[in-house]
Amino acid sequence: MENDKKYIVLGDDYKGYPLNMFCVPKHYEDDLEHVLIPAGLINDRIERLAREIIQDFRHEAITGLCVLKGGYKFFTDLLDKIKALNRNSEESVPLAVDFIRVKSYTGTTSGEMTVTGIDNLENLKDKNVLIVEDIIDTGKTMIKLLEILQKYNPKSIKVASLLTKRRASGTGFKPHYLGFEVPDKFVVGYALDYNEYFRDLNHICVINQHGIEKYTTKK
Ligand code: IMP
Predict the structure, then answer these.
(1) 3.40.50.2020, 3.10.560.10, 2.40.50.140, 3.40.50.970: which CATH number matches 8-217?
(2) How far, in Å, from the CA of 18 to the mean position of ligand 1?
(3) Best residue for ligand 1 mutational test, from 104, 137, 174 (most atoms within 8 Å of Cβ)
(4) Cα diameter, the chain
(5) What is the pTM of this model?
C-alpha cells in the first residue's frame, strides 16, 4: 500500500532498539535511553531523499546551504548521494555548497536571529537554495531563517530536514524534504548534540536523565 506521507513517522510508543544491539561509544553507554534510528537506516532514507531532490530540480543547479553544526552529517551524506546519482544517471544537477550558523536571541521579544559563516548572503541571488538542517522542533528557527534569506532574492528556497518533532504546540512548519517525524523527546547523535556532546555518536538516540545531568553545564 502506498503511504501518502512523504516521510517516516515514528510513533510515540516506538522505542527503537536496545543500546546493546548496536555499537555505541563506551563513554555514552550510561547516558542514552535507546537507539531511535540506527545509522544504516538514516543512510538508506537519505538515499531516497537524494533521489526526490534530483527529480524535482532536474537540470537546475542547486546551492546546498548547510546549517551548522548539527546539519553537517546530514549535509555531507545527502550530497554524497546526490553526487552518486549525478555520476550514474542521464539527468544531473550541478551542486554548489555553503555553510551558515544561526544564532537566536531568545531573550528578546522580537526573536532576533543572526546568520554568520557565509561570505556574502548576496551570493544567493537568483540561486535555487536548498537549506539542509538536522531537526525542526517548534519551527521558529526555520521560519525566521527563511524570512532572512528571502531578502536576498534567491530564485527558490527549499528546506531538507532529517527530522521533525511531533509536538502539540509550535508553528507546524513542515520541510519540503523530510526523513523522519519523531516523538517529542530530546535526541542526540549523527551530529545532533546536547551541549556539544554526542556529535561523535553514529546513531540517533534518545538521551536519558543521567546524560542530561552529566552534560548540563553547571552555572
Ligand atoms: P526550533 O526553532 O524550535 O525548530 O529549534 C530548532 C533547533 O533546536 C535545531 O536546529 C537544533 O539545533 C535544536 N534542537 C531542537 N530539538 C533538538 C533535539 O532533540 N536534539 C538536538 N537539538 C535540538
Answers:
(1) 3.40.50.2020
(2) 24
(3) 137
(4) 57
(5) 0.93
